[in-house]
Amino acid sequence: xxxxxxxxxxxxxxxxxxxxxxxxxxxxxxxxxxxxxxxxxxxxxxxxxxxxxxxxxxxxxxxxxxxxxxxxxxxxxxxxxxxxxxxxxxxxxxxxxxxxxxxxxxxxxxxxxxxxxxxxxxxxxxxxxxxxxxxxxxxxxxxxxxxxxxxxxxxxxxxxxxxxxxxxxxxxxxxxxxxxxxxxxxxxxxxxxxxxxxxxxxxxxxxxxxxxxxxxxxxxxxxxxxxxxxxxxxxxxxxxxxxxxxxxxxxxxxxxxxxxxxxxxxxxxxxxxxxxxxxxxxxxxxxxxxxxxxxxxxxx
Length: 300
Hints:
By secondary structure, the protein is of the alpha/beta class. The protein is built from ten helices and eleven strands. Strands 4-5-2-8-1-9-10-11 form an eight-stranded mixed β-sheet, with helices on both faces.
């Protein structure tokens, strides 16, 4: 199943935002819109702290964490390390949706799937660093029948995952901006980081004593595939606020591709743990898909 133009087939799209910006809402709306455009979509829950994504997508069960499949974290004696301390790639990071143990997969049977990487609460006290979750998110490849699937990754709120190199293996980064100065600044930082990576900037490596690890880390940035960032306004209460946010983002040379207005029905669904009914925001979500397809067509 591919979109009308197919340009996003097999791409990896990450969704970022400050805490409370509503990035998981945007992930759900965007996943549905991509599916309506004809894409098979695999949503990856890469948020190590938040819960409820499966219910919001309307899926009946929460899949088991892939962290178990990859051997667990180093903090509990497992194999998955933090990419800041150990930038080596995850062994065998490719997941075939048609062959993976069904415990690790939740799907609607019509082209929308969910994988979960793990939550920091699962390993108990003293194992709360979620760097290993970021490593799986950075390296994970998803396919079906030997063909790459469009992957939509929902990242933890804040800046941490950027420093862990997850951006290097994305094709596009979508930044969600709510009506706060912090969210506007975060969008500016994300855009700047991606531009610097594309211009050849490397990672911080002074903490690495092993020259081999330094070369691996620098190689990840040197081979980065990220094309750019797109900004989405969310929780916009009124036209005046939207105008202000657009002006504030323009000072960072950023033009939002869509604006999702405050919606009490969406907030209520999150509160109750219900499926997000996205019909009222379908046009807004479709605008994000159109912008992604247009950007990919130009970049490609």
